[in-house]
């Protein structure tokens, strides 16, 4: 289970219950890869989406028995996208473990992701309002469409900040936003509150993904538990690079050209130069400011929520995510 | 659209409406691969699952406005599994067209399958009873689990008839059975009728998959619109081979060993010898009898349904599927 929330027993406690439900959901004798999937699911993810769902529910009347399975469904849905992401990016490590497809092959990983997605839908159909179950399905479509767009844009480096923000909106912010919102709706919070939570969740999600992309530029492998510079190696153009290109298009394009040529075994020196140039040109700083701007917008929205412990909790989560190191 | 039902206007008409809904569902500007997916969806599949759902509904009071979107959801769900199947088996042709992953790469095909699966869930959450939406999600899990098992069993040839039947039960019969059942339940048919339809659908589904596997042994490429002997090349052990192994274990294992060795470019002569031996040893005939046995069981169940045009229709569909050439 996660230690991201270890300072916050009010979240850590229900998240442990969510993790138990996830474990039970995976414990299906008919599913051949249940042990491998269980290791992945139990391996200390941040469980951000169920955490947001639980926080959202605290703005209404909580029915934990109904809510926790839904929180598990949202996290399983997220994990299923991670499995397919790893297949797609041919990533070797996830959460400190070898990825599923490196252990069992691409076929098994694709099917395991499908299996998990279907389990997640079943769990949400069981425990969510019909409208919320539909909304969750819609978000998965948005995630897939954004991921496809992201893949089609690889090695082009022509992405604008605007196009980048649109992609991460579908890829990440939509599900984080919906998690908060669905928690509130399921707990019958006032619709005005639920709407504010939806907006705050969106901004938190945007900041979250920007930080995620930023950490790929500046974090150490040890902290991230995955290789640094991975996005660049993959031909992805995320926000630090976009800002860096604005500042020094010719210089950075020249380096990117070398990166592409080196292809299969990336030239680590070229990679390091690009990472350095993104810092020197202010690309990383500009990205950090963008994340801070979204967090500030989220905080402004949060400040308009009814005063309650959940409001303070959400506010501190938004700051914690902005300042995280992994 | 399908021409499998061209002699049956009572089914062809609503299936055209289902195809239109499928087209509308895919027509999402935000989805980059909508055109390629539309070609696949429109390319003359049998649309067996929506056909069964519609037949099932005729045992109750039909509300077509609610039912046809659900029929579309069931077919889209099936198509999403085909996309991932083709990735997994690296199949080059589907329904006479190049497969999605050969056109756009594995990544896009995996995501397109996910996208479609999510769209299908959303459509079924919108249009089905909660219990039916859950049941559809459960069937997808069963399909994935069976596909994983099938893949893990490749090149082993140790499959018993019993293990084979268990696999095709999850892979195919479950969804066909559920389609008939869900149609009946959504149309508020008596529960006894719905249960009979569930059982009949299961037997029809078992016969259907056996015939499918059999056609890989004896059909011509022209008719199947995909290569013959494909399952053998893939290391799959389907029922004609299982029966053939019972009759001549040593001889056929020797041939199978050569097939495995030839690996990347299959030795067509060895393949032809195995296909021939499966016929000579009676494996193909035994498989055909197995399919006929399931169809007879389905017909017995159908005969116990209330007399009505839908009953006759279902009976003729069962026979048509047994005797089909593709």
Described by its quaternary structure, the protein is: homodimer
Our count of helices of chain A gives 16
Quantity of strands of chain A, as a count:
2
Provide the CATH top-level class of chain A. Mainly Alpha
Q: Would you identify the regions of chain A where 5 or more consecutive residues have pLDDT less than 50? A: none
Determine the structural class of chain A based on helices, strands and strand pairing: mainly alpha
Dominant shape of chain A: globular
User: How is the biggest beta sheet of chain A arranged?
Assistant: 2 strands, antiparallel
Report the portion of residues of chain A in β strands: under 5%
Radius of gyration of chain A: 20 Å
CATH superfamily of chain A: Farnesyl Diphosphate Synthase
- Average predicted local confidence, pLDDT of chain A: 88
User: What is the CA–CA distance across the termini of chain A?
Assistant: 16 Å
Identify the CATH architecture of chain A: Orthogonal Bundle
Structure, explained:
The structure is a homodimer of 326-residue chains. Chain A has 326 residues and is mainly alpha-helical. Chain A has one domain: Farnesyl Diphosphate Synthase, CATH 1.10.600.10. Helices cover 75% and strands 1% of the residues of chain A. The first copy, chain A, has 16 helices and two strands. Chain A has helices at residues 9-26, 34-41, 48-57, 64-89, 100-104, 106-127, 130-152, 161-186, 191-218, 221-224, 230-233, 239-247, 249-262, 268-280, 283-303, 309-322; strands at residues 93-94, 97-98. A two-stranded antiparallel ribbon of chain A has the order 1-2. In chain A, β1 (93-94) and β2 (97-98) form a beta hairpin. In chain A, α3 runs antiparallel to α4 (64-89) and α8 crosses α9. The longest helix of chain A is centred in the middle third of the chain and has 28 residues, at 191-218. Chain A starts with 8 loop residues before the first helix and ends with a helix. The model of chain A has no long low-confidence stretch (mean pLDDT 88). The interface between A and B is large, with 42 and 42 residues.
């Amino acid at each position: 289970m996660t230690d991201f929330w270890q300072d916050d027993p009010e979240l850590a406690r229900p998240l442990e219950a969510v993790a138990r439900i996830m474990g039970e959901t995976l414990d299906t004798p008919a599913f051949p890869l249940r042990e491998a999937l269980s290791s992945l699911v139990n391996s200390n993810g941040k469980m951000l989406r169920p955490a947001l769902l639980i926080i959202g529910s605290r703005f209404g009347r909580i029915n934990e028995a109904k809510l926790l399975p839904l929180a598990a469904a949202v996290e399983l849905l997220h994990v299923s996208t991670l499995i397919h992401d790893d297949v797609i990016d041919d990533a070797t490590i996830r959460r400190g473990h070898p990825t599923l497809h490196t252990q069992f092959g691409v076929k098994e990983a694709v099917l395991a992701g499908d299996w998990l997605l279907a389990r997640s839908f079943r769990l949400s159909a069981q425990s969510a309002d019909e409208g919320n179950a539909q909304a969750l399905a819609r978000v998965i479509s948005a995630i897939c469409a954004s991921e496809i767009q992201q893949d089609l844009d690889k090695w082009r480096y022509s992405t604008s900040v605007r196009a980048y923000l649109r992609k991460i909106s579908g890829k990440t912010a939509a599900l984080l936003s919906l998690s908060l919102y669905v928690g509130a709706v399921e707990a019958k919070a006032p619709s005005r509150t639920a709407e504010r939570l939806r907006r705050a969740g969106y901004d938190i999600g945007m900041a979250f993904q920007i930080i995620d992309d930023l950490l790929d530029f500046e974090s150490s492998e040890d902290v991230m538990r995955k290789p640094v510079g991975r996005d660049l190696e993959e031909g992805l153009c995320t926000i630090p690079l976009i800002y860096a290109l604005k500042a020094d298009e010719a210089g950075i394009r020249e380096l990117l050209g070398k990166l592409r040529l080196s292809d299969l075994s990336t030239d680590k020196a070229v990679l390091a130069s690009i990472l350095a140039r993104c810092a020197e040109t202010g690309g990383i700083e500009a990205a950090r400011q963008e994340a801070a701007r979204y967090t500030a917008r989220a905080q402004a929205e949060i400040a308009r929520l009814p005063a309650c412990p959940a409001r303070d909790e959400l506010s501190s989560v938004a700051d914690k995510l902005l300042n995280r190191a992994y």
